[in-house]
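Exercise 7. Given the encoded structure of a 322-residue chain, write a plausible sequence.
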């Protein structure tokens, strides 16, 4: 039995694409751009001796690179993911990176495999564009999940500060100094903007729209109503903190209940691809007898479409909103 190393080569090239993306990102912007250190990035910049105004302008500039508002499907989707993940690359730079990595993948496939040129070009484009989109989506999902988990703690810190007599702007800044990234830098930027006269509800609402979190929209509405109508903001935020924690607890419970269905859907989605890879590795000439038939390509396209529909449908079935 002759084993083929082609599937492992494809996997290695795709992995190298992901590593290259992360390496280019860190090389261009440094380790602090990752937003996962215990000392948040805003405090790190302030500790280097930079003025608060300069730090605020830099952070605002980094957040303004994803505001083109173009409605082109792929471009708009990429820009939305980059905005949620606070990726320092603009959407245009990410598209250029996709093209460059597609060329890199094609060259690597040309050296490592003997497949046809059209096949190498197609796989190269798939690796380049898919690798960048996968990397950006993973960054966005990780960052939004971290913010959602940090939010109740930050609200509790604001509630304690308000109860001892601090104004909301000072309470927000105190919470920003105590919470790590990614939420710490965002709250610190909002606190700096409030010190220059920006409306608190508007600043928090803009942050909520950027990361698309409903809990932050609740916080923005609560602050806006209190500023216009008065009331005990500490009690309002305390209630909001309990609601956010309850939603988060319910969300985890739902994920635990649907874990079997999600893993079943993942298995049904991955198994056909894994079987194809195993067949190609164990017996590379398995499909040689049918490759030249006229129905091979149309049926292969139909199978790929059914696999895509299966993945989308399985995700839809197990994606329960809380």
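Solution.
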């Amino acid at each position: 039995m002759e084993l083929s190393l082609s599937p492992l080569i494809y996997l290695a090239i795709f992995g190298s694409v992901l590593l290259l993306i992360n390496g280019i990102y860190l090389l261009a912007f440094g380790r602090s751009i990752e937003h996962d250190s215990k000392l948040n990035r805003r405090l790190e910049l302030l500790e280097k001796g930079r003025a608060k105004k300069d730090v605020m302008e830099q952070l605002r500039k980094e957040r303004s690179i994803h505001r083109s508002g173009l409605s082109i499907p792929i471009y708009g989707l990429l820009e939305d993911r980059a905005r949620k993940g606070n990726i320092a690359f603009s959407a245009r730079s990410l598209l250029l990176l996709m093209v460059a990595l597609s060329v890199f993948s094609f060259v690597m496939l040309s050296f490592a495999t003997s497949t046809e040129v059209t096949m190498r070009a197609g796989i190269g484009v798939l690796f380049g564009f898919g690798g960048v989109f996968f990397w950006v989506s993973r960054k966005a999902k990780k960052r939004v999940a971290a913010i959602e988990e940090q939010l109740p703690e930050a609200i509790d810190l604001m509630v304690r500060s308000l109860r001892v007599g601090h104004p909301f702007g000072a309470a927000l800044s105190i919470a920003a100094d105590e919470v790590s990234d990614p939420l710490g830098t965002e709250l610190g930027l909002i606190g700096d903007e409030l010190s220059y006269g920006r409306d608190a509800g508007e600043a928090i609402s803009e942050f909520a729209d950027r990361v698309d979190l409903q809990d932050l929209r609740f916080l923005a509405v609560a602050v806006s109503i209190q500023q216009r109508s008065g009331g005990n903001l500490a009690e309002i935020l305390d209630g909001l903190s309990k609601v956010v924690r309850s939603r988060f607890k319910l969300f985890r419970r739902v994920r635990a209940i649907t874990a079997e269905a999600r893993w079943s859907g993942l298995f049904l989605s991955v198994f056909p691809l894994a079987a194809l890879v195993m067949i190609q590795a164990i017996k590379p000439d398995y499909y040689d007898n049918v490759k030249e038939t006229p129905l091979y390509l149309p049926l292969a396209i139909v199978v790929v479409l059914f696999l895509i529909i299966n993945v989308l449908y399985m995700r839809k079935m197990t994606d329960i909103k809380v």
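Remark. The mean pLDDT is 83. Students should compare their own answers with the one above.
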